[in-house]
Batch of 4 targets.
Target 1
Amino acid sequence: AVALVALIALPLGAVALSLKGESVRAVEQAQEAITLSETLGHTATRVLALAYLTLILEVNGDTDRVLLESERALALEHEVTSWFFGLAHAMHGWALTRQGRPEEGIAELESALAEELRIAANIFAAVIGALLAQAHLRHDRLEPARAVLDQMYSLVEAMGTYVFEPELLRVEAECRRIEGLESDARRLLLRAIATAQQHGSWALAVRAAVELARRPSAEHEADLTLLGDLYEHLPSDNDTDYGREAKNLLGPMLTTK
């Protein structure tokens, strides 16, 4: 029983670490859970740990590893029933959209979202919805992206507090930018940053701040200052796309980290 609790707690804690920007520790802790589940021969919790690892790797921006680990999880579909396969399928689809296979990836994301909605796994559904909307936008599909976001907001409102809400706000900001509504996009990104800060989610705060600082505006210097302040919350061994993008944008403003 103690081992089972650890098998569940370790990957959940790893996700929390990843949101704080502790990318290396997060991956290591998820891998520890995977190894423990393999040692104990507990397939269901191995699927859980692998699925959460793919989520952590998506936050980190490690597309190749997301594809690899999601395929490891999905190889177990014939052995056990688990609602975590929906998350693994979604992360696999996301990785495909990033590797030049948008039609296949979007179809897998849509299927995974439908399954999570069917079983009322709304937390995962909202994560997947943000990824799906972002994939639509990346391939010039504004209307489908808007429809998914509207659906996800209705889920989030029912939840009250939702730690991944900044991702929905960040993707919605991209919709507004495409529509030419720059002031709305800015407002949404600032809201995403504030919401992430409230949750101590420095990873999501920096991701939103990177989007803000990329855009030319009268407030560009202030945006860079905000990004710099948020970047300072990341550990020195942060190994993520968002950390590298922040560092590139900040350039000489950075103190040695």
Target 2
Amino acid sequence: AQGVLDAQNDGVETIKSEYSTSTLSLLDQKQNAKEKVHQAGVEVKGEITSDQTLSNDEKFDQKNKVDQSVKLAKDSIEEAKDAQRVIDAQTTGINHVRSDYQSGSAIVEQKKLAKAKIVQVAKDIKTRITADVTLVDLEKTAQRARVDSSVVDAKDEIDGTNTAQGIIDAVSAAILTISNEYQPSSDNLDKQRNLAEEKISDKVGNISDLIDKDLTLNDRAKSLQFAAITLAENEVVRNISKATNAQSIKTSFEKGAVLV
């Protein structure tokens, strides 16, 4: 019987020795867990900052998400009632922090998309130039050529950068430059017609003065020439007034100037 009692006592002592409380209080465990989550946040934000595939706005947004995840994780750790819940909150928090970092698409792909966007913008601008009735053909040709030149420069700028933000900046600058290559005439069609008619009138007036002062012409010859000039002037003015675009006004004026 004594042997049984001794064995029982030894077993109780052995079982008691198996229980050992943590050397850290629950408060300390929470503090350690928060520090690990904080450190994970610092590391992930460092990775985000150095990621060349992300734009400044994307980096800003992702780092904000990291900060929010860190805060939520710390709140969960603080609310934990035991060591296991502290560990679980720490693990979940770090996983969320790491998932907040999402790298962008490959730089080569971003460059390809950026160039395509530039080409489309240029196409739209050149269409507007072509359709502008206030511009003559030479002006349209010159403006479209400047657009093409700006596209080449923009593509070179895009090729010369290796960061997402650099690509975005190059595209923004290029779009502004290309858009500014299109300059409608400062004179609307009515004003262009009036200016052309005034020039024709001035020319007719000058020629009429020459006829009137020409001592080699008799009155009948002068009258015939005055009538011819007036007829030509009326024809030119009619053509100018019917013109529906700057090039037609210019052509009508030039032909009229020869006739007069």
Target 3
Amino acid sequence: WSSDVCSSDLDSKYIIPVGVAVAAIAVTQPSVSVIFVIMSLLYTLAECYEKGIKTLRPLVTIGILGILLASTYWMPTVIKYGVENTKRGIGIISSNPGNIFGDTELGKVYTVEDYLFIQPQGNIDQMIGVSWVFAIMAILGAGICIYQLIKGKKDAYLTFSVMMFVFGFLGTAGNSLPTYLRLYPYRFWIFLAIPVAILTGIAYLKLEEWLPKYKGLLLIAFVSLVFIFSAINKFSVQTAIWPPGVGYSSVEELRGYFQMK
């Protein structure tokens, strides 16, 4: 939102806070920050498509500020541990030869079933799948956006939503792509969920526009389908109890404590 304000109104008071936020992401989530960079580039392209090249100035300023602030942490770290050890420490290099980006699904290639049906069993940290309800609605929403863009409507919101949807899908399908195009496929489910939610909202509002007499029925049907085919499975996994004798441990968290000591 702050980046949008900067590019829309060219209001400089938001540039520093957003730059600090960029640096914070680069320091606290270094492996995933690559994904955020690509998302930012897609957003910038969408903004330039709607409002012209003038939007580049504040966005580029934000990027430079974020890089400079983040480098105050990463430059000393690289000097102390070296490039390879730093990359290994943040998960860019995995001990698994076929899994150089540290994907916790160990190279799994997701099928159509994985997308259309929430898996009854999955990793406790992140569920796999979006459900056929959201998949159909997101595809419909993407079609609506593309149609409006083809008709000549310049809207950064619509453009970014479609680009982010394609980017998120390709991200989750990364293990079926060449190695140099893989960026943590398992972690991409949460990034795919963002455009899916946006496009689902666009599709739902358009359905209400097409069927104004059935708004109440549409709402009941949509909420019911989401609850049955998505919410129940997600809730059951996210609230699952750890088996007896199994405890939580995070090597990365322990390393952080050791570094602080």
Target 4
Amino acid sequence: ESELGQGLFFASPLFRNTKLELYYDKLSTMLLRRKRYEDLRTLMKNQGESHRTYTYYMLAATAIRNTKEPMDSKVRLEGILENYRNALNLNPLAEKAMQGEARILLEMERYEEAIATYDHLIAINPDKQSYVLNRAVCLESLERYEEALKPLFRLNYEQPDDVNVSRVLAWTLLGGGKYEQALTLYEKLTTVEQAAAEDFLNQGYCMWLTGNVQGAIESFRHYIKETGEPAINIINNEERMLSKKGISNEEMQMMYDAIAP
């Protein structure tokens, strides 16, 4: 810790434009390894702009992501995005920085920008499955279902037992109104060892939308038992989707009455 403490002392703005700044990357890596994110942020803030390298911006993004300091979520995400973009200004083809940018844009629901970034990533690394899946999530969120489904069907054909592919494909089919196909996938997902509570939730929506009310009730109850989620959230969280797909307010109330503990 003495080496670390000394390093933080020399990270003071008083020591800018000295050879001591040459040790910033080493010290930053040490802080990151020890998960001292608040200290890492302090170091980042004090580093002179002339010494801000690609590594600096990547570490700064990690520090903001992981710091426990109180921070507005929008400010946090914008800070992370800014650092990834600064890193890309220095190294435009850096896959790791581009991946970070795409992930943050997706989290910020800036789907069009995220799609453009995932297009670049897929061009760099076409075999990276997560890029294709995340791009499909963006397209689904924009209700561009047919565009999303084409690469998902291909992945599902190549890897029929991959639960991540099956989940994204099933959710996109559900959003696109292909309930029977989605239900087939959810029936499989709810029986595998890696089954998630959300698989039962989405299976319930598919059953409800295909007229199997009793099956939907059982799936929703399973989800509530697994997660402790209030029954009202099952209705409220997808009220817009349910209404758009023909479920009336009266039906939503009856479903709530049936699944509420």
